[in-house]
Amino acid sequence: MHKIMIIEDDMTIARIIKEHLCKWNYDAANITDFKNIIEQIISFQPQLILLDVMLPFFNGFYLCGEIRKISKVPIIFISSANDNMNIIMAMNMGGDDFIVKPFDLNVLTAKVGALIRRTYSFNGKMNIIEHKGVILNLNDTTLNYKNNKIILTKNEYKILQILMDNIGKVVSREEIMQHLWENDEFVDDNTLTVNITRLRKKLEEFGLENFIITKKGLGYMVE
Questions:
Q1: What is the pTM of this model?
Q2: 128-221 under CATH 1.20.1740.10, yes or no
Q3: Is the Cβ–Cβ distance between 21 and 28 less than 8 Å?
Q4: Ranges of CATH 1.10.10.10 domains, the chain
């Protein structure tokens, strides 16, 4: 069952779309808090997004750009603004299709199905790891926190990847070194210490003090 998020502020239209998609065995959800859309997307992990252009607080073009920072999830714009400039803007911001209101629900469903079939030859998950507002982007190996994009080195990224894949668990130094050694680049114990120290300093510069916790004699963890 593919998950679809509907970002539409007309609650009647949103409800009708959701009910129709559910009849076609999709797991559909409507946005309810338009101030915190990105957080809801991360929580729901949709495999396709239906996105209106005119929305409270942020318009669909802006939101599409923000979504593209963390995900390649397919996006279909749904809008009554059907002039060429809006369609071009939608595509330039990262949209995959554009359907004009009012539309036939069966046409919408056909477009949804076709885009999902084209997209998901892979597992369909968003390529991010999120914890307490910290977003590790697996697409470009960067970290996002409070609208700051943190550029990571290869080793910094791989350290955070294994720690954030094991939230709340201690990861031993040996496990981290083995993870870093996958690319035939030998990392000894002292090199790991240097990498951890540099990574912590970089995180602290963006307000992430004590994000990586040392468990003496055991390893490291993200709580």
A1: 0.62
A2: no
A3: yes
A4: 128-221
Beta strand 148-151 with 213-215 is unpaired
Cα–Cα distance list, 106 to 99, 125, 184, 192 (Å): 12, 26, 52, 56
Residue tagged 């791989």 (tokens): 158
Q: Rounded distance, CA 160 to CA 124, Å?
A: 22
Q: What is the pLDDT of residues 50-104, one digit of tens each?
A: 999 999 988 889 999 999 888 889 999 998 877 788 888 888 888 999 998 888 9
If you search the block for the tokens 């369909």, which residue do you land on? 124
Q: What is the pLDDT of residues 100-151, one digit of tens each?
A: 888 899 989 999 988 888 887 554 456 788 888 888 888 788 898 887 889 9
Which residue's structure tokens are 């959701």?
18
Per the document, the length of the chain is 223
Other beta carbons within 10 Å of 109:
16
pLDDT band at 184 (very low <50, low <70, confident <90, very high): very low
**DSSP secondary structure code for residue 8 in this structure:** -
**CB-based contact 164:136 (threshold 8 Å):** yes
Q: Which of 127, 169, 116 is nearest to 42 (CA)?
A: 127
CA distance 60 to 94: 11
Residue 172 contacts by C-beta under 8 Å, 6 or more apart in sequence?
218, 219
CATH topology of domain 3-119: Rossmann fold (3.40.50)
Return the ∠ at Cα 61 (arms to 125 and 127), rounded to 5°. 15
